[in-house]
Amino acid sequence: MKWKGRRQSDNVEDRRGMSGSGKVIAGGGIIGIIILLLNIFGGENAKMITPMLEQINQSQSTTPTEQRELTAEEKEMGEFVATVFADTEDVWIKIFNENNLGTYQQPKMVLFSGAVETACGGASSASGPFYCPGDQKVYMDLTFFEELRTRFGAKGGDFAIAYVIAHEVGHHVQTILGTSGKVRKLQQSRSDLEANKLSVCLELQADFYGGLWAHYNQKYLEEGDIEEALSAAHAVGDDAIQSKMQGHVVPDSFTHGTSEQRMKWFMKGFKTGDIQLGDTFAEEL
Q1: What is one term from the GO cellular component aspect held by the record (predicted)?
Q2: Using one digit for the tens of pLDDT, what is the confidence trace for 90-118?
């Protein structure tokens, strides 16, 4: 992706030089795996998962804040992320204006290492990237992408990161358009299976919005970028994760969609560039 020398967002808070701040959910091991399985590309699920984990793991620890200098590579990654985030701001302002959706309220992004406190509760690196509707912020520990490549077989590359950012910003769009609130309300009166299906639709729509962002951002794309995004989307499909982690898949437990679905909806957004065609709920339920 062509990004150097371009505008960077002012809405990015980089906390990576701070370690050990706030409450850290103790335990790791299977708890970390649970978080990863349930909350990878977490959308708003972090809000629901954190209380469960705190019940499972009563012991929490608080450690003093330590600060360190970021490496040159980390600084460059921060600049890249801030550039991509700026692109999402520009694109969604344009989409909202073109479709008479009102004023686009820009989210913020927090880069962190290890653990972080949010309006949705505490989270660790194992949570994967997620969006918290309570403070309208995207949270990312960038070490996640190495895990995505080495453990789950994604190709890697800078556009895989851009896809994830665009997906999480998609959850912000769902929040300010009211989609997320409607889905959560519906889930309260549905069975677990039906609630899971609604969650899948929410996640696939965020993938569609990620593709929509890429459609509007094509002038900055380079050869291989879309393939990197599709590889990441494939790696985080429910079926791919369950097969990798437990050796079999349980479709009724899916909350984010299969690899095929995630790639399909990203590409639909990318090819059409039409926000009106992103009704995953009509097609998938």
Answers
A1: membrane
A2: 999 999 999 999 999 999 999 998 889 99
**What pLDDT is attached to residue 114?**
87
pTM for the predicted model, two decimal places:
0.84
In a domain, 283, yes or no: no
First to last CA, the chain: 35
Q: Kindly compute the dihedral angle of the four CA atoms of residues 253, 165, 48, 185, in this order, to the nearest 10 degrees.
A: -80
Average pLDDT over residues 133-154: 84
Q: Counting every residue, how long is the chain? A: 285
Top pLDDT among 136 and 127 is at: 136
Residue 221 lies in a domain: yes
Query: How far apart (Å, rounded) are the C-alpha atoms in residues 62 and 23?
Result: 5
How crowded is residue 70: how many other Cβ atoms within 10 Å of its Cβ? 15
Q: Does a structural domain hold residue 3? A: no
* 145, 160 Cβ separation under 8 angstroms: yes
Residue 75's domain spans which residues? 12-276
User: So what's the pLDDT on residue 32?
Assistant: 36
Count of domains for the chain: 1
Q: What does the H/E/C string look like for the chain? A: CCCCCCCCCCCEEECCCEECCCEEECCCCHHHHHHHHHHCCCCCCHHHHHHHHHHHCCCEEECCCEECCCCHHHHHHHHHHHHHHHHHHHHHHHHHHHCCCCCCCCCEEEECCCEEEECCEEEEHHHCCEEECCCCEEEECCCHHHHHHHCCCCCCCHHHHHHHHHHHHHHHHHHHHCHHHHHHHHHCCCCHHHHHHHHHHHHHHHHHHHHHHHHHCHHHCCCCHHHHHHHHHHHCCHHHHHHHHHCCCCHHHCCCCCHHHHHHHHHHHHHHCCHHHCCHHHHHC
Calculate ∠ Cα 115-117-122, nearest 5°.
Answer: 75
